[in-house]
Amino acid sequence: MKIKDIVNRDIVTLTNCEHEPIHIPGQIQPHGFLIGIDVEGKIEFCTKNSAEFVDVAYTEMLGKKFSDVFGQAGEKQLFEYINEDKIKDAFPLEMELNGKLFQISIHKSFDIYVLEAELLFSREKLADVYTQTIQFVNQMNNTRSLKDLCALVAEATREITGYDRVMIYRFDEQYNGEVFAESCREDLEPFLGLHYPHTDIPAQARELYIRNQLRLIVDIEYEPVPIFTIDDKEDKNLDLSLSILRSTSPIHVEYLKNMGVGATLTISLIHRDRLWGLIACHHYSKKNLSPEIRLAAKLQGQFITSQIDIRESNDENENARNTTLALEQLTSLEFPVLKQALMNIIEAPQLLQICNAAGVSIISRDKIYKNGLTPSDEEIIKLLDLIVDKKTNSTLVTNKVKNVFPDIELFDTAGILYHELGNSDHIIWFRPETVSEINWGGDPEKSIVKDSNGLHPRNSFNIWKQIVKNQSSSWKQYEIYAATQYAHALHTLLMVIMLSEEEEKYRTQSEILRETNSELENINWISTHDLQEPLRKIQLITSKMMSELDVISIESISYSLQRVLNSADRMRVLLEDLLKYTRIKNTRDTLQKIDLNHILKVTKEEMSEIISEGNAVIENENLPEVHAIGFLMRQLFSNIIQNSLKYASPERNCVIKITASQEPELVSYSDKIYCHWVRFSDNGIGFEQKYADSIFKVFTRLHNQQEYTGSGIGLALCKKIMQAVGGTIHAEGKTGIGTIITIYFPCDPLDTLL
């Protein structure tokens, strides 16, 4: 009978190292021995070290029946165990072989039963292991995130197994690994956060990790033990994919030696039929584990894999919930249906929160509204031109703009989420460049080194830093969905704004037409009454003087001429006020930011004499900046103050108090929305509230000409000024107490409304 070993002596090269046949090494680790029997009990394979354990050499075993070597009772016990319906890797067979107690792990490799025997361990304190596992489960229920759970598993696995270092190793899509969680001795340098290239665990090794979920190396310095067989078939071999004792690739062993590791335990983390990660345990001296501890450690891995979906869902759901909440808050906010609503929207913090962006820009009617960290207006316009020219869908999502538009440079921006809103309107969310510093455990480009002695794994594990630039963090699917949802809502809002503005335009035109008709009627009345009245007086006085030239005295002539002069002056004032009134047109396109404090100061200086003559006092708060026209505001303030001085009470000194809104605020009045108000309150004679509207009509007087001089145009002029700047005016009066005039200013597109 010819006997041969089945040691795989294929030379590993740079071209085949990723396909090294590690599942058929033909060798095992020496802390146990291996026997391979066929279904009839014939020993087909045996390791060289069998004599060290059972005092029977492999040459004496091969070709014999198991019962011939270990007795009929032993064979019966073996096949009863094989035929039992139980989890073999959880409960290895305990049996006596030639007077020694062994624990035997059994699996089937094609038509061969592989028996791996290790000397029976002293009984672990199973109660302690059970207690630790129960404590872990209780603690596990208190964690929500996957990272917290993995940190807990690393700590618990180290406590149960006693290894010096336990790492939870997570793979990315390309199977590059990251130390996701770690527990280690305090004197050891932590590996947490380090990355390792996919070449550290090649494809065939990952395949074995899926098939065999527990891998143990008891002593890195071991001498492999060859497996022998009867040389009765060509290429006769033994697949050790499910073996506990299988010898490890020499490249991997050298890799571990370079790390200074003495023993390892590796537990596969399989999720959705894919190798998600590993529990990698390192010890810095040799170390073996009992079956009970191995099982407890394996359970730790199953705790993780059973929770991956739940914990990742928890992590993502929490972020998605925050995004959804921001979207709900944003869509529920009440904005005035005006173009200024875009300023309110762009300043809303939820607009950034819905997709966790750093900046956002809304482009509507060739105007750019921005908030947060955004490119310049010129860069945004250039980006839009490129997006439109690309003629893709109405959306564009990328975390690396350079990949899409290589020639564009955007200030501190690497990722965009773009939506077309229709009618040449757009919205773009921005994310800055996230300069990623990936710490690799050695240069990933040098994972395999070739020298004169052959191939070797890298021997340097010094941290090698890789800097990744020109890209932002990736847009999550729920963020993209939330942005899409809001883009649709914003499109609807912009359509409503457009329709509302058209309606407002027609309504304004109707109001202007109605006001114009009313003005024409008043002017017609003026031409037939107010202007004719002083003319009649002039004509009457001059006619009387002409008829009495012979008898009229110098004093009488002087008196009559003074009356003529007064009538002419009265007519002049009427004509000047009428001219001022008719010259005021809709000037909203020329509105500017005006400081009302300056307007009031100039007005008080111009009116200082009349204010002093009337012993009047003007008290005022700090006034806001508004969207208006400077010279009209001076005329407005002057007319209102003159009105208060004119109608001051004879019983007390005139006091005028001027108050105002200090910050922009939405104020609803007369079915319109305004942002600022200024109030003039006096303690004059007042008026009855029923005349509150009529006092703003042209040439309307509540008192006769003899009591109070004036043309009756002052407050009408004030009303027209406020209409011209897009505001309005309102009066309140109480007879004998005083008058309150309130003016309302339109929203400035630059205002920030809370």
UniProtKB/TrEMBL annotation:
Is Ligase found in the keyword set?
no
Q: Does the keyword Phosphoprotein apply?
A: yes
Q: Which Pfam families match?
A: GAF, HATPase_c, PAS_2, PHY
Residue ranges of the Histidine kinase domain? 526-749
Matching entries from Gene3D superfamilies are given as: 1.10.287.130, 3.30.450.270, 3.30.450.40, Histidine kinase-like ATPase, C-terminal domain, PAS domain
- Indicate the enzyme's highest-level EC class: transferase
Coiled-coil segments on the chain, per record: none
Q: Name one GO molecular function term.
A: ATP binding
Record field: catalytic activity: ATP + protein L-histidine = ADP + protein N-phospho-L-histidine
Residue stretches making up the Phytochrome chromophore attachment site domain: 145-302
Keywords assigned by UniProt, alphabetized: ATP-binding, Chromophore, Kinase, Nucleotide-binding, Phosphoprotein, Photoreceptor protein, Receptor, Sensory transduction, Transferase
Q: What is its EC number?
A: 2.7.13.3
Query: Hey, which family's this protein in?
Result: In the N-terminal section; belongs to the phytochrome family.
Name of the featured protein: histidine kinase
Source organism of this protein record: Flavobacterium procerum
State the organism's lineage. Bacteria, Pseudomonadati, Bacteroidota, Flavobacteriia, Flavobacteriales
